[in-house]
Design brief:
The complex is a heterodimer of chains A (about 200) and B (about 475). With about 200 residues, chain A is mainly alpha-helical. Chain A has nine helices and no strands. Chain A has helices spanning about 5-25, 30-50, 50-75, 80-85, 90-110, 110-115, 130-140, 145-165, 180. The chains are: A mainly alpha (about 200), B mainly alpha (about 475). The interface of A and B includes residues 110, 142, 147 and 161 of A.
Chain lengths: ~200, ~475
């Protein structure tokens, strides 16, 4: 067993452990933190496959942005733990059965019979100065320019849809409008002198 | 690697629609509510100019640009023009309805334009990646449009269902694509088809991928047993969105099926034909039978759509160019018919009242003889009664199926379309032989009335002279 293979098995074991913990922990914050661990280990697996760029993006995007947001939401929401876990044990055998059947089926189709090393030779390892990111950047903005443009339009639609569906202008909102605030001029705009009849001094009794 | 600016010419229609969408988005920011009509006019003008742009870049031979991810051919030109015109009419019907309900916002048209862009990308896709991205662009815009009426609970629920099921379908499709990539080593349709020539069922990975691609397609088309989202989405969405959802995207879905199955996986025809037979037969059976039990016209038309999807699949599964053009003819005719059908629903709805139930159509003849006649033509066309165009559409696809010796499938199709005729003719009966319960007259703008009249009359005109449209479809398929 080479060192790489050893690393692969170690990190795979951590990944499977973390993934199991995500769905079995009682505390949703723990689940989210184990998901972070799962993302980290899968990014290391990608690193072993020499897909450095994907590994970095997984950490930056999923761990750095998505999971932080997720943790934030989990902490803000009042989740009813009992309701979430109701029926877990009852459903477990069915779930295991379905998962088992799917795993066997996937092994039969995606397994070594069709994707073994005799079918697809192992790619030659790249030299140390090979930059995965640079290669990706080269094809992304030349061959795949059209898909990249469409993907950017999809993101734009996502922004429009999110704002369009959630932005509400409420009349009872006590928000301050900075544009109006800076237009206030010196003098009568700012201070209004109110004339009042003089009041008599209260006399202490 | 050399980039040539001339390769941008075939893509001009997409660039144009994208620019119009962004322009409307920005212009709309600077408008008061009462000037909002300007966004509407800009959108409509953009769609009409896009027809000219598409005709301008049209050429007899097919062009593949962007390193094999984009194709412009006869089918893409014809379907794109169809999509512009159908979306144009859909926005026109929507205008008054949206204004009465305080939904007349720029985003509606911006999202609509992005949906049109998504459809164009699907129609012109020449690799699995572009096909998928176009589909996502279309779906994402439609999810937001379904939820457009934020105060409607049914609308939000429908959008949620549509979103979740649409995401599952996309996942299925992507999984299938990844299998096909694994087996053939490419995501470009041309190279996939070349790699597949000669291999059939023996490669299990390919069949596995094919099954997932067909499932993803069936979800998006709404074929049984992947139809569950359709009635709820059609019912829950504002009727103008249902109208849009049920018309132009059908053309794009047809194009997607053609591109994926015929252009990409064409050599596996023997494998996917059987799957499509099952989907088509189930769709025709279930759609027509369950539609009978509906009392809500939007749900009824949703089940009717499911049965029509079955017929569209019939033409594709035949696997001949006659079959493909018959299927394209059917799709275009169906899109125009459903445009008219939902147009009537919009026409009869007023502020605070949705003409959703079948009872609302009672005695329409006494209230508005002209639109009752239009609705009758539309319903007859959906049922496939001659001399309306729906008859020819059904005839051509059945002819294509019979010519590849699948007579039993054609018989099933005829049998269930006879059952389906019941619920279409029930509406005609309600309109002509029942007394009206409410005495309101139809109040709609002149533009809606004129276009709706043309839409209804088209059923008859195309029914009497179907040759032109059929020749156009045959030429488009090539």
């Amino acid at each position: 067993m080479t060192f790489e293979k050893f690393l692969f098995y170690v990190f795979s074991a951590i990944l499977v452990f973390a993934a199991t913990m995500v769905i079995t922990r009682r505390n949703p914050v723990h689940s989210a933190l184990f998901l972070v661990l799962a993302f980290f280990t899968s990014s290391i697996l990608w690193m072993l496959l020499e897909a450095e760029f994907l590994a970095i993006v997984l950490v930056l995007v999923y761990v750095g942005a998505v999971m932080v947001l997720f943790l934030f939401v989990v902490m803000m929401l009042d989740i009813d733990q009992a309701a979430m876990r109701a029926g877990f044990i009852k459903m477990l055998p069915v779930g295991l059965l379905v998962a088992g059947i799917m795993a066997v089926e996937m092994f039969l189709v995606v397994g070594p019979k069709y994707f073994g090393l005799d079918k697809y030779a192992m790619p030659a390892p790249h030299p140390a100065d090979y930059s995965n990111t640079e290669e990706l950047g080269n094809v992304l903005y030349t061959i795949y320019m059209y898909p990249v443009e469409i993907a950017s339009v999809i993101l734009l639609v996502g922004i429009i849809a999110a704002i369009g569906l959630t932005l509400r202008r409420r009349p009872d909102n006590k928000r301050i409008d900075p544009a109006l605030q800076v237009q206030v001029k010196k003098g009568p705009d700012r201070i209004r002198v109110v004339k009042m009849p003089a009041e008599k001094k209260m006399e202490a009794k | 690697m050399q980039f040539e600016a001339s390769s941008l010419i075939p893509v001009l229609p997409e660039i144009f629609i994208l620019s119009v969408a962004c322009f409307v988005l920005v212009v709309d920011l600077f408008m008061e509510d009462r000037q909002r009509i300007i966004s509407y006019f800009l959108t409509q003008a953009g769609l009409l100019v896009a027809v000219l742009v598409t005709l301008g870049v049209s050429q007899p031979e097919a062009q593949v640009v962007f390193d094999g991810s984009y194709v412009r051919d006869g089918m893409s030109d014809a379907l794109k023009i169809g999509i512009y015109l159908i979306s144009f009419v859909a926005f026109l019907y929507a205008k008054d309805y949206l204004r009465e309900r305080d939904l007349f916002k720029g985003e509606y048209f911006v999202l609509g334009l992005f949906a049109v862009l998504g459809m164009m990308v699907m129609v012109s896709a020449y690799s699995f990646l572009t096909a998928y991205l176009g589909l996502e662009l279309l779906s994402l815009s439609l999810y937001a449009m379904v939820a457009f009426d934020r105060d409607s609970k049914a609308g939000s629920e429908a959008a949620m269902k549509y979103f979740v099921l649409g995401a599952i379908a996309s996942g299925m499709l992507l999984y299938g694509i990844s299998m096909i990539y694994g087996a053939t080593g490419s995501i470009e349709f041309e190279k996939v088809a070349a790699a597949l020539t000669g291999t059939g069922m023996e490669n299990k990975v390919l069949v596995f991928g094919l099954v997932f691609v067909v499932i993803g397609l069936a979800f998006k088309l709404g074929a049984v047993p992947f139809h569950m989202w359709m009635p709820d989405v059609y019912h829950g969405a504002p009727v103008t969105v249902t109208l849009f959802l049920g018309s132009a995207p059908k053309l794009a879905a047809f194009a997607l099926a053609m591109r994926l199955l015929v252009d990409g996986l064409g050599p596996l025809h023997a494998d996917w034909q059987g799957m499509l037979v099952v989907l088509a037969v189930l769709s025709m059976a279930l759609g027509n039978v369950i539609a009978i039990a509906q009392t809500n016209i939007k749900r009824m038309l949703a089940y009717s759509t499911i049965s029509h999807v079955g017929f569209i699949l019939l033409g594709i599964l035949a696997g001949t160019s006659e079959g493909y053009s018959a299927s394209m003819f059917y799709t275009i005719v169906y899109a125009i018919t459903s445009l008219g059908g939902f147009g009537i629903v919009i026409l009869l709805s007023r502020q605070g009242f949705e003409a959703e139930n079948l009872e609302d159509y009672k005695g329409l003849h006494e209230r508005s003889p002209w639109f009752a006649a239009m609705m009758m033509l539309l319903m007859f066309s959906m049922a496939g009664v001659p001399p309306t165009v729906g008859f020819w559409a059904k005839l051509f696809v059945l002819d294509a199926v019979v010519s590849v010796d699948l007579v039993w499938v054609a018989l099933v199709g005829v049998f269930f379309s006879i059952i389906g005729a019941f619920y279409y003719i029930r509406i005609v009966k309600l309109m002509y032989f029942d007394k009206p319960e409410a005495g309101e007259l139809v109040t709609a703008g002149m533009d809606t009335r004129v276009v709706l009249s043309i839409n209804g009359a088209l059923m008859l005109v195309l029914g009497l002279f179907p040759a032109g449209l059929l020749a156009l479809c045959a030429r488009a398929i090539g």
